[in-house]
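Exercise (ungraded).
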Amino acid sequence: MDFSGLIDNFGPLTVTGLAQGAIIALFALGYTLVYGVLRLINFAHSEVFLMGTYACLIVWGFFGLDQNSAAPSVGGMLLYLVIGLVVAIIASGVTALAVEVVAYRPLRRRNAPPLAFLITAIGASLFISELTGVLTHRNQRGVPPIIQAKPLFTIGDTTVTNLQLLIIVLALVMMFVLDRFINGSRLGRGIRAVSQNPDSAALMGVNKSRVIALVFLLGGLMAGIAAVMYDLKIGVTRYDAGFLLGIDAFAAAVLGGIGNLRGALLGGLLLGVLQNYAAGLFGSQWLHAASFVLLVVILLFRPTGLLGESLGRARA
Amino acid sequence: MLLEIDNVTLAYGRIQALHGISLTVGEGEVVALIGANGAGKSTTMRAISGLRPVSQGTIKFDGQDITKLRADLRVIRGVSQSPEGRGIFPGMTVRENLEMGAYTRRNRTEINEDLQRAFTLFPRLKEREKQTGGTLSGGEQQMLAVGRALMSRPKLLLLDEPSMGLAPMLIQQIFDIIVEINQQGTTVLLVEQNAQQALSRAHRAYVLETGRIVKEGTGRELLNDPAVKDAYLGVA
């Protein structure tokens, strides 16, 4: 145990953790949204994220950018960033909808038992991940230097880079927008109604299929943003990138209280930060093990997660 | 006829719940459906609102066949149900619950008028406007469920056990309100355990036994029917 390693690097570990956690939180929203309405863990959500990580790389490739390109100008950076985000959001959103329509909807029509959904979810996840693996020859793909991490400002001895700030701010803004949508709009109210009482929601005139499609889409959009941030932060993606980070994101959703949007944010940030503290304390090889020990400990005391209530109860 | 149900059968898995039910509700009527527990009253309501698919038979509303129509689309046609067990949204405030009732409507001015009407019918709901549905008492939840069902401006209001779990004074009150709603122009189909109240307030009524209609008549006729008295009114 390296206490001095943790204490000396407390600031940088916190900032790195928050940026990592912000990505996890955006990713986790997809699990929590779908769970809130369908009581289903959509394991294929990790591949919804995966498609986003590739989609922006492919479109940047159209502009002749690869990992060996020179960094673009500020104007080019913004342009590429926006294009990458839009394309990744579309790719992830479409993937999420496709999974719902192809894999889950036919099962719902036949009133399949929950286990059938679970195995279908795992199957859809494996299928997309393996297909990506085959198409990419299981090679990783490098990310062009759209944004080069540069120190932006310093608090005490902690330096915050432009990329870290972008990731954290973007995640918070998206969370806020999503929260306003769920709690403030008519469609958002429909989502809450279905999650609280599906039969009553139908009696109010809420189209359940549309609500279900909408939560898959929303989860996909958030995963698309997370995917671009992940690319820029990590610098490479691979066919199993979604699987690995997906476990963190799912853990974050459970940690915060699955079904609760704000719980996903809290769980994501907490997991990101604590993983980095654990890495400082025990060495980075212990990052995942330590965070899951913590998850188990927290769930022992709060079995429904930190903000554990349903999506529908998420109040403004 | 506003509602015509013809020979409807419905099964939960292998258990046959309705064995060929036929009934009608005319525009402007209050019609009651009485019967013992498990007779199929709530199932009939679910068939009408579309929560449960029927196996056979037809349901016509406003002259059109709605047998296969999804529940949410029946709301747009003018069918609204206050379900058994109230079915309120526990995490939404009273106001949000009421506004859910107007989900299919867009005209904000009309919705606000109807909110005021609901608050006039149930002043208690006004007091509780910002509380979440889950924190209300059973009686208040019942008022909320009825008020919410009215928010879609239905042609036909389906009320499933509106007096369930209410104190005797509140039962009187809720039946007064049902009559008032009806006089304001809404047709009502009512399921009740409280046969005395239901029959004295309804224009017509049907008696259900084990998934079949065994008697029908005006409220008064059934109130004076010896068999009905014996089985449902607790007097020999």
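Further reading is listed at the end of the chapter. For now, observe: The first strand of chain B starts at residue 3 and ends at 12. The beta strands of chain B are 3-12, 15-25, 30-35, 56-61, 64-65, 79-82, 156-160, 187-192, 204-209, 212-218.
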